[in-house]
Amino acid sequence: MTAPLGIPISRWLYDIEPTAEGCTVTETSWLRVPLYIRRPEDRR
Hints:
This protein is mainly beta.
């Protein structure tokens, strides 16, 4: 996902694995907001 001006802010990945009952979906996400956009308490 991108913010205005094409700045990347997040990314998601979905792993889908078959199971005997159907499937298991695992979601992984990354916050990619540049430090200059983040709130001061989130800058780590």
